[in-house]
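not sure who needs this but someone in the group chat was asking about RNase H type-1 domain-containing protein from Ficus carica so here u go. i didnt clean anything up, its just raw.
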Amino acid sequence: MRGVVIRDSDGTILGCQAKKIQGSFSPFMAECLALRESLLFAKDCGICIQIAKVDATRVVQAVNCGDSLAEEGAVINDILELFSVSPL
């Protein structure tokens, strides 16, 4: 199960969702998938995401470096694409 809460700069909740992601994944891949699903949810709601708070340091490093190695690479690339096309 993964959950997301989207807040504005004042902390007001704009949207929230809980969703079960099917499959068996490494913790790193699960965190990557959770971030991607959260960004997709925001996009579907028409919410522009400027900052994403993530507990997983490796995911933050991978996104900041544009790291696209191994099986997680496609998911990291999706995350980067979602940030680049976020509505203003």
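also The chain has a mean pLDDT of 86. if thats useful
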